[in-house]
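From the methods appendix. Each design record in this collection lists the tokenized structure first, followed by the designed amino acid sequence. Records were kept in a plain field format so they could be parsed without special tools. The example shown here is representative of the layout used throughout.

RECORD:
FOLD TOKENS (338 positions):
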């Protein structure tokens, strides 16, 4: 591959993916299309701003003329769609932007890619499309889709559009579904960066409900290596699950974070539960391991320590983000919970 278009490349996973691809493939050029919503930050790629292989277009994946323009003027071998509204709590407050970007945006992108005969399209999806597990079992690619939040319903709708385009038009798409990511550059509304930031400032950590909900955590770099493997070796029309083999209850993770940060458990504050809160996510990634030769490389403890170190040594990054739009959002929506 010589040129790929990445959408949502200024967000958490997209920026880590761009960095990985530029480092792995010296001949590759990347067009990064991002709307720069509250979650998109050009600073996430500041260390690559002088790389001539990386170009940036500010714009919305819902705008067909813009996508057509990019695809007509560049010889794009593949499109990787990260662009999305990604936070479950925000989707509960207002599902409108989620329907727009996650569903309509995907449809526009699929149509534009089809018209431009783009040879490969990868949809970055989530394990949340499978719904919630009880104490036992794992999500496989054949687990029925049963999304519970407006966020996951919109991601599922996008996956179904991708499926239909493969089936109807023979569109060359691959879908990947991953568990909860952690690592550098994650927006501090998500559990791990939020709790690191709060604990560092001796503020309380708002644990939803009983804290017994379980997530399977994967280091963002392992996820990005999986997407790269699917892009190169994946079969058209197929779905690949990625997970980190690191199931943790939220309260267990919160206590581990406090221990690693040297902060007391008294910072924990149990707050009103998220409505419709999924109990447990856990991934069976054996298909990706067998078919793509992919495996996660990070142990959770090692990855978490590295992540904590990154946030501690990039505290200005987090403070700048928190002083912007995020702060007013956080205060109006969640201030009362703290
Ligand atoms: P993020 O919120 O950090 O970043 C999203 C990016 O998309 C931002 O840069 C934003 O500006 C951009 N964007 C939003 N709407 C856009 C639009 N209409 N047009 C163009 N750009 C737009 O999200 P993330 O955590 O990096 O997630 C990236 C993708 O991975 C999403 O599709 C998400 O559903 C999926 N995913 C995330 C996780 C996770 O744990 N974070 C797990 C599995 C899958
Ligand atoms: P989050 O990072 O929002 O990811 P997702 O909802 O996509 O899994 O949340 C991870 C888990 O942590 C989830 O079970 C909700 C919980 N949580 C809290 O208990 N407190 C918080 O302040 C946040 C943001 C999340």
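DESIGN:
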């Amino acid at each position: 591959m010589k040129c790929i278009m990445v959408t949502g490349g200024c967000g958490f996973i997209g920026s880590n993916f761009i960095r990985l691809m530029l480092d792995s493939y010296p001949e590759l050029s990347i067009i990064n299309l991002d709307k720069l919503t509250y979650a998109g930050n050009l600073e996430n790629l500041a260390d690559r701003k002088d790389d001539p292989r990386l170009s940036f277009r500010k714009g919305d994946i819902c705008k067909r003329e813009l996508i057509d323009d990019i695809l007509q003027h560049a010889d794009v071998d593949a499109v990787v769609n990260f662009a999305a509204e990604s936070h479950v709590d925000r989707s509960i407050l207002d599902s409108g932007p989620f329907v727009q970007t996650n569903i309509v945006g995907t449809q526009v992108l699929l149509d534009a890619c089809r018209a431009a005969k783009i040879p490969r399209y990868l949809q970055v999806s989530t394990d949340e499309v499978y719904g919630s597990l009880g104490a036992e079992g794992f999500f496989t690619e054949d687990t029925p889709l049963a999304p519970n939040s407006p966020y996951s319903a919109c991601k599922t709708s996008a996956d179904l559009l991708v499926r239909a385009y493969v089936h109807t038009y023979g569109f060359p798409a691959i879908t990947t579904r991953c568990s909860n990511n952690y690592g550098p550059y994650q927006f501090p509304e998500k559990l791990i960066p939020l709790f690191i930031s709060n604990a560092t400032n001796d503020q309380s950590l708002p644990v939803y409900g009983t804290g017994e909900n379980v997530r399977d955590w994967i280091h963002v770099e392992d996820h990005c290596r999986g997407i790269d493997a699917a892009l190169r070796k994946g079969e058209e029309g197929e779905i690949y699950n990625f997970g980190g083999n690191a199931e943790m209850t939220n309260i267990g993770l919160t206590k581990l974070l406090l221990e690693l940060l040297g902060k007391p458990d008294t910072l924990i504050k149990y707050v009103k539960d998220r409505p419709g809160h999924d109990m447990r996510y856990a991934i069976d990634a054996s298909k990706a391991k067998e078919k793509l030769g992919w495996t996660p490389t990070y142990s959770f403890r090692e990855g978490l320590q590295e992540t904590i170190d990154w946030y501690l040594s990039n505290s200005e990054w987090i403070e700048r983000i928190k002083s912007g739009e995020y702060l007013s959002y956080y205060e109006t929506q969640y201030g009362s919970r703290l």
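APPENDIX NOTE: The CA atoms of residues 112 and 127 lie 26 Å apart.
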